[in-house]
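Sequence design from tokenized structure. All designs in this work follow the same two-part layout: the structure record, then the generated sequence. An example of the structure record is given first.
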């Protein structure tokens, strides 16, 4: 850049460029070749800039396409992931239902066993009650006999407790 300088005597602004005469400098053949070389260089640089711009636009387009594709793939993966999570939730719910059903059925097995044992016990009690109500053959009732020795309880005798003999 050219710096303007102001002289003290004259109030004219001078520049550091030399003044060109109205007739102008003489243009020689070397200057023409230099100018043409510079113009050719400028044209070559403009062509390089234009190709660089085209290449960068192509690169940007391919990047945008790749980003779009990767975005679509990411969205698809997210959708697949949510679908898999839904399937897993359904499977877990079904598993929990099956486990509850198994526990319920196992509880019923225990209840069934308890019912069967109570049924057997009640049958034994009924059989015992029936035996107690009817005498065996023509003899006494079963409750009138000692279970160990099968002798009749009486009010007298050394072998039987007096308490049992009193109620007979």
């Amino acid at each position: 850049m050219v710096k303007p300088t102001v002289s003290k005597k004259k109030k004219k602004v001078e520049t550091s460029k030399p003044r060109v005469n109205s007739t102008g400098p003489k243009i020689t053949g070397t200057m023409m070749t230099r100018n043409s070389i510079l113009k050719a260089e400028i044209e070559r640089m403009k062509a390089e800039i234009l190709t660089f711009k085209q290449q960068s636009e192509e690169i940007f387009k391919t990047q945008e396409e790749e980003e779009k594709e990767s975005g679509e793939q990411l969205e698809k993966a997210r959708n697949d992931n949510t679908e898999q999570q839904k399937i897993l939730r359904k499977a877990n719910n079904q598993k929990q239902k099956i486990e509850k059903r198994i526990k319920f059925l196992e509880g019923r097995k225990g209840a069934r066993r308890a019912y069967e044992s109570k049924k057997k016990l009640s049958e034994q009690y009924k059989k015992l009650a029936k035996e107690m109500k009817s005498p065996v053959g023509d003899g006494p009732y079963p409750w009138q006999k000692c279970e160990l020795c099968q002798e009749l309880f009486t009010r007298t005798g050394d072998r039987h407790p007096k308490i049992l003999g009193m109620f007979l």
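The chain has two domains: 28-133, 134-168. We note this feature because it recurs in several other targets discussed in the main text.
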